[in-house]
Design a protein that fits this description.
By secondary structure, the protein is mainly alpha-helical. Helices cover about 55% and strands about 10% of the residues. The mean pLDDT is about 85.
């Protein structure tokens, strides 16, 4: 993970794949591996390795606000999707919470029930989401349409869940003259 910084911006695809893989299927708790020297043997759950990986990726994400905004939007999407996947295991798929057209894409917004449990319980994922929110605010406050448009184009292509839309719309409401204007076509979507 420490070497991911050296890869940006030349190898964004590698960084993208690291985030995608790290926030995909994590090992189930109860799977153990041995570590440490023979004089001091220890066993750790393999799921703890994933927690450490998520921690390191959250640190990486937070310090790379100058990276490609599309990559940052996608990494935040992978992080929050891991929570949705974990919570949705074994459930019958639900109908979309809403369907909107955004940037020429029809987005069937998946329900994530974040309004019930919130996002604070998933600390490292929440750090990534908070950083994404702060990046949106920075780009909007700096009137940086290139970065905002890159992030929004990727955002629309990913069809993120309800919480990601809440973050985007919240940032847009605080910056109506910049980010808010880029969200105007959502107002034309029939209810």
């Amino acid at each position: 993970i420490d070497n991911l910084d050296a890869l940006l911006p030349a190898s964004e695809e590698v960084v993208r794949q690291v985030y995608a893989a790290a926030f995909r299927d994590r090992p189930a708790p109860g799977s153990w591996r041995n570590m440490g020297p023979l004089t001091l043997p220890m066993s750790v759950q393999t799921s703890d390795d994933w927690n450490q990986l998520h921690y390191l990726l959250s640190l990486h994400y937070q310090k790379n606000g100058n990276a490609n905004p599309a990559l940052l939007a996608e990494a935040a999407h992978y992080a929050w999707n891991s929570v949705r996947w974990k919570e949705g295991r074994g459930r019958t798929p639900e109908a979309p919470a809403a369907t909107v057209t955004f940037r020429g894409k029809v987005c069937a917004i998946p329900a994530d029930h974040s309004h019930i449990g919130g996002r604070d319980f998933y600390h490292h994922v929440n750090e990534i989401l908070h950083a994404f929110e702060q990046f949106l605010h920075q780009w909007a406050a700096a009137s940086d349409p290139a970065r905002l448009n890159a992030a929004l184009d990727r955002f629309a292509a990913l069809n993120p869940s309800a919480l990601m839309w809440t973050i985007l719309l919240g940032a847009g409401s605080k910056h109506p003259a910049t980010l808010g204007l880029l969200l105007v076509d959502l107002l034309d979507t029939p209810a």
